[in-house]
Specification:
The chain contains 3 helices and no strands. It is mainly α. Helix 1 packs antiparallel against helix 2 and helix 2 runs antiparallel to helix 3. The mean pLDDT is 89.
Length: 70
């Protein structure tokens, strides 16, 4: 059971990291939606990591504030 849990955590870490890296590249490359990919990576990470849940809450608040100003 522990091996499965560790494997899941590793896959979530790698998958979230890839999404975040591609999201960062999306801020430079015009064909990639950077913000969407960053949030997707944080969502994936937040399923396993507490710090990611905290960061995601701050990002959600920032996006809500940003959309309210428009």
């Amino acid at each position: 059971m522990s091996i499965r849990k560790d494997l899941r955590k590793a896959l979530v870490a790698i998958g979230g990291g890839l999404l975040v890296l591609v999201g960062v590249a999306g801020f430079v490359l015009p064909i990639l939606p950077g913000t969407v990919l960053l949030v997707a990576g944080l969502l994936l990470w937040s399923s396993e990591f507490r710090w990611a849940r905290d960061v995601l809450a701050r990002v959600r608040a920032w996006l809500a504030d940003r959309s309210a100003k428009r």
